[in-house]
């Protein structure tokens, strides 16, 4: 009797429907809000990941796998199963996912691609003020170099890797100098990946509103249930939300660092009391 053969496990269902690969600070929070309004589930934005160290550990490894310019480059591309660890249950991704754009198009070939356009000068000013300056400088260096290692966080180092690798830079200043080249390369690579695949790519500006986006996705334009009027396209204040989240996250990190230091504080207190007792007895003070 022939031995029974095991049935291989079924491949996980592909949930990913939309890859929004416009770069961070290109209206990604507005797109996140718009897709959520259109009924897509588990739309992933970078703000979702703040405070989620498991996500950042995956993004850290993804950066090592993706960008040859990083000293920590692993020379081993990420597999679909590895991407699924963070985005396997998502129907759409945006924001931080954009730096892995070409890799995600390969990993999720059935997903449609939305490439949000923003004027380079406005974008570069915005990403400098809200992203780069939040990751490099005296205060960020303190959190990345001191606080995060103390509490086991990798969010700061992973964020730095992702940006430096994407920009093919060694430090923040080189990254700033490389922004235009990296910006143009990013858009060209996304277009090249989608070339010859009709209906795969939508190049979109927020000012275009609902119509082209909904036509591309095959969804109805959202309307007010009472008046029937078109709901305004969302223009969310991402910079304000990001600043609030970063402050909240830094406060939480400091709290965790305080808890981590408590045993050391107790040990220092005992040592100090012992030294005082010895000194008092030795010198009769």
Break the fold down into its secondary structure elements and pairings.
Blueprint: E1 18-20, H1 28-37, E2 43-44, H2 46-49, H3 53-66, H4 80-87, E3 92-93, H5 101-107, E4 112-116, H6 120-135, H7 138-151, H8 155-167, H9 172-194, E5 201-204, H10 210-217, H11 238-283
Parallel strand pairs: 1-3, 1-4, 2-3, 4-5
Helix pairs in contact: 3-4, 3-8, 5-9, 6-9, 7-11, 8-9
The main β sheet shows up as: 5 strands, parallel
Structural class: mainly alpha
Give me the side-by-side strand order of the main sheet: 2-3-1-4-5
The CATH class, by name, is: Alpha Beta
Total helical segments: 11
- CATH superfamily, called what? P-loop containing nucleotide triphosphate hydrolases
Shape: globular
Helical content (DSSP H or I, runs of 4+): 55-70%
For the terminal residues, how far apart are their CA atoms?
A: 92 Å
Q: Any idea of the CATH topology? A: Rossmann fold
Mean pLDDT: 83
Percentage of residues in DSSP E strands: 5-15%
Integer tally of domains: 1
Which parts are unreliable, with pLDDT below 50 for 5 consecutive residues or more? 1-12, 261-285
* Computed Rg: 24 Å
Q: Can you write the helix and strand succession as a string?
A: EHEHHHEHEHHHHEHH
What CATH architecture label applies?
3-Layer(aba) Sandwich
The counted number of beta strands is 5
């Amino acid at each position: 009797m022939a031995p029974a053969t095991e049935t291989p496990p079924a491949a996980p269902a592909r949930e990913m429907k939309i890859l929004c690969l416009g770069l961070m600070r290109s209206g990604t929070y507005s797109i996140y809000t718009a897709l959520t309004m259109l009924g897509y589930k588990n739309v992933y934005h970078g703000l979702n990941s703040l405070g989620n160290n498991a996500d950042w550990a995956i993004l850290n490894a993804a950066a090592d796998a993706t960008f040859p310019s990083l000293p920590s480059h692993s020379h081993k591309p990420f597999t679909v199963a590895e991407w699924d660890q963070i985005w396997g249950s998502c129907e759409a991704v945006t924001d931080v996912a954009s730096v892995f754009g070409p890799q995600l198009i390969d990993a999720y070939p059935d997903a449609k691609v939305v490439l949000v356009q923003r004027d380079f000068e406005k974008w570069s000013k915005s990403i400098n003020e809200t992203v780069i300056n939040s990751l490099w400088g005296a205060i960020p260096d303190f959190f990345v170099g001191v606080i995060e290692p103390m509490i086991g966080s990798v969010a700061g180092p992973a964020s730095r890797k992702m940006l430096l690798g994407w920009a093919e830079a060694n430090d923040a200043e080189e990254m700033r100098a490389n922004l235009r080249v990296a910006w143009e390369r990013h858009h060209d690579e996304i277009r090249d990946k989608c070339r010859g695949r009709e209906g795969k790519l939508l190049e979109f500006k927020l000012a275009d509103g609902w119509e082209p986006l909904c036509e591309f996705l095959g969804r109805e334009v959202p309307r007010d249930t009472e008046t029937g009027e078109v709901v305004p396209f969302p223009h969310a204040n991402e910079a304000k939300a990001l600043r609030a989240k970063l402050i909240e996250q830094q406060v939480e990190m400091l709290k965790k660092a305080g808890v981590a230091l408590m045993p050391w504080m107790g040990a220092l207190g005992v040592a100090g009391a012992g030294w005082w007792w010895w000194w008092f007895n030795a010198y009769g003070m």
